[in-house]
Write a structure and sequence with these properties.
With 649 residues, the protein is of the alpha/beta class. It is built from 16 helices and 28 strands.
């Protein structure tokens, strides 16, 4: 009973105590907030533990410009809407604030809001750092104290996150990577569990980075995190904010960068969230031709409103500042840029110049990237953008949007469509295979084989491949070799590395039991070795975004579906030749003609027995003879394995 009494004394205070008229805002803060340039809004809004006049408690601040009355309701005042009324600032900022003495850490609360035309709502805190586990919807008073141990990583991460560094990203949905009970979607492992098991797995697989699908608070598991309510809160499904920090710390200790998915494009209509926050369209556009997402039944941020820009840019900055993340993948950028995104004629209104671009969103994105790169120059901002919008990953001073990289959706579609073909038909579709290099240098591209490609009837990677079991695995190995030797960053969704046979299901977990079977276990080893190859060979990353880092050597054997290209680093001696035999035909004494080098050694063969290949076709000693002394052209004699990739150095 003593312990229970202590908890009660910590979390409940005398509701008759008044709210103290106390503020953290300066006049400059208010101006910046209204102009969309308050980039540390999380230090001012939300709930913050303070000591005022010798009393410890929590200061609360919320923006609700059309509210007529706001109070803080919580377990500390029995959810009484009359107990702790906030003060509205007299500067027309729409900010309500106040200090409540006696409130302690971990107390649940919401804002009770009387809004436009008498609307009464109870909202979670848009700036809250910790929420109840869903389906409960209250915010918790919290703190973000944490003693980081990643000083060495933070000091050196610039070289890891450089565009001249290897990028091999493991995309993860935490809940379904591994569950305590694989058949119970309500069971979750903890951030501490992932700090041990996931970190070790990513380290052993030799990925350079991990990308987490949204870990920001969200009410519905089926949204995969992309319909968020807590833009400053780590989801409580797996533990506390500090436990997420510890997990990120553990990745950094192993030299692994952490990328978070972030969604500034839309938010859900949940009653406790941002929608109609003060009875009006506070965070979203009022005109539903701009303010509603028909694809996702959600609402679009009003990028024209300075207070919303401050909210969003502060959210992005928060995760770099407080959680030491190394990159951010910005979701659904296409939908932000286009006024006519998923809309028919008559369902959208052109901008002031008659075009289909959302001018306010464009300004917001540029400000976002300029701010984040200004404050954290050793990170990367990555766009998920699927159109031909120019300059996504070009600097803003050159007319671009300022991202560091962009997902290469065209490469993904063309590559999957090519490898789905019966190998006998590939000779007629080589252009699909080679088209990516026609536009590769338009952007800094990352090649994604993401979660979106193995859901909703699209089938898992292994079953996209044609042929019997051996051919499916050989095709997949060949495709992965092509991916890892193609210029640009690489991203594989979890389960792709061992050939999952089911589509991804967020309610379950990965098919770890498949690793008892040789083909799946050896495919996992194969992906690990591709990651090692990528790390070890500068030719695969030093000039990955430069035109002199790649060269087609042979595209003239369509009928045989043999393709050859060269990858080049700074050191001419680090060059690699990649030969892909895209049919199940063994080709003995195949001739490759290339300039510059008289000696080559096979350093990688996808048909090796250790990868579930035949192991019958390899090149222990490569015959190389000069055929043009003046041009230094050599004839290289090779044996090509069926559906195989070999790499020479």
């Amino acid at each position: 009973m003593a312990a229970a009494k202590k908890y009660e004394e910590q979390h409940f205070v005398d509701s008759t105590k008044p709210v103290w008229n106390y503020s953290l805002f300066s006049d400059d803060d208010i101006r910046n907030f209204q102009h969309g340039t308050l980039y540390r809004a999380y230090e001012l809004f939300g709930s913050h533990e303070k000591e005022v006049l010798g009393k410890t408690g929590y200061y609360f601040a919320v923006w609700a410009p059309n509210a007529t009355y706001i109070s803080v309701i919580g377990e500390f005042n029995n959810w009484d809407p009359d107990a702790h009324r906030l003060y509205v600032r007299m500067d027309n900022s729409g900010i309500w604030e106040g200090f409540i003495p006696g409130v302690h850490r971990g107390a649940m609360y919401k804002y009770h809001i009387h809004g436009y035309k008498g609307a009464v709502t109870e909202k979670g805190d848009p700036y809250g750092n910790f929420w109840e586990i869903r389906p409960a919807t209250a915010t918790k008073t919290w703190y973000l104290d944490y003693k980081w141990e990643d000083k060495s990583w933070m000091k050196s991460r610039k070289k890891h996150n450089s565009l001249k560094a290897p990028w091999s990203v493991y995309e993860v949905h935490l809940a379904s990577w591994m569950r305590p009970d694989r058949n119970n979607e309500e069971s979750y492992n903890t951030y501490e569990f992932f700090a041990e098991r996931l970190v070790k797995y990513v380290r052993d697989m030799k990925y350079t980075h991990v990308e987490l699908m949204p870990v920001m608070e969200h009410p519905f598991d089926g949204s995969w995190g992309y319909q968020g309510t807590g833009y400053f809160a780590a989801t409580s499904r797996y533990g506390t904010p500090q436990q997420l920090m510890k997990m990120i710390d553990a990745f950094h200790e192993e030299g692994i960068g952490v990328i978070l998915d972030w969604v500034p494009s839309h938010f859900p209509y949940d009653a406790h969230g941002l929608f109609m926050f003060d009875g009006t369209h506070t965070y979203e556009y009022a005109d539903m031709r701009k303010g509603f997402h028909p694809d996702w039944n959600s609402y679009i941020f009003n990028y024209k409103r300075g207070e919303v820009k401050s909210f969003l840019i502060s959210s992005a900055r928060f995760w770099f500042d407080k959680y030491h993340i190394d990159g951010m993948r910005v979701d659904a950028v296409s939908s932000m840029l286009k006024l006519n995104y998923s809309r028919e004629e008559g369902e959208w209104e052109p901008n002031e110049f008659g075009g289909d671009g959302n001018l306010e969103a464009i300004v917001f994105i540029k400000d976002l990237n300029e701010t984040i790169y200004r404050d954290f120059e050793d990170i990367q901002m990555i766009a998920e953008e699927a159109t031909d919008w120019p300059g996504i990953s070009k600097p803003t001073y050159s007319g671009g949007l300022g991202f560091g990289m962009k997902w290469m959706m065209g490469w993904m579609h063309d590559t999957l469509n090519f490898f789905k073909l019966d190998p006998l038909h590939r000779q007629y579709h080589q252009d699909k295979f080679t088209f990516s290099m026609m536009y590769f240098y338009d952007e800094n591209f990352m090649l994604p084989l993401s979660h979106d490609e193995i859901v909703h009837g699209k089938s898992p990677m292994i079953y996209k491949m044609p042929g019997d079991e051996w051919q499916k695995f050989a095709n997949l190995r060949c495709m992965y070799a092509y991916m890892f030797t193609h210029p640009g960053g690489k991203l594989l969704f979890m389960g792709n590395e061992f050939g999952a046979t089911n589509e991804w299901n967020y309610k379950s977990e990965l098919q770890w039991d498949l690793l008892q079977f040789e083909p799946h276990r050896k495919l996992k080893d194969y992906v690990r070795d591709l990651n090692i190859l990528l790390r070890d060979e500068p030719a695969l990353y030093e000039r990955q975004f430069k035109q002199d880092g790649f060269e087609w050597i042979d595209l003239n054997h369509r009928q045989e579906s043999v393709v050859v290209y060269r990858r080049k680093g700074k050191d001419p001696d680090e060059e690699l030749l990649v030969i892909l035999n895209l049919t199940p035909v063994i080709r003995k004494n195949w001739k490759v003609y290339a300039a510059g080098k008289s000696k080559w050694q096979e350093i990688f063969n996808s048909d090796d027995k250790k990868y579930f290949g035949t192991g019958d076709v390899y090149n222990p000693a490569i015959e190389c003879k000069m055929v043009d002394k003046k041009g230094k052209w050599y004839e290289i004699n090779l044996h090509l394995p069926p559906l195989g990739a070999i790499i020479l150095k």
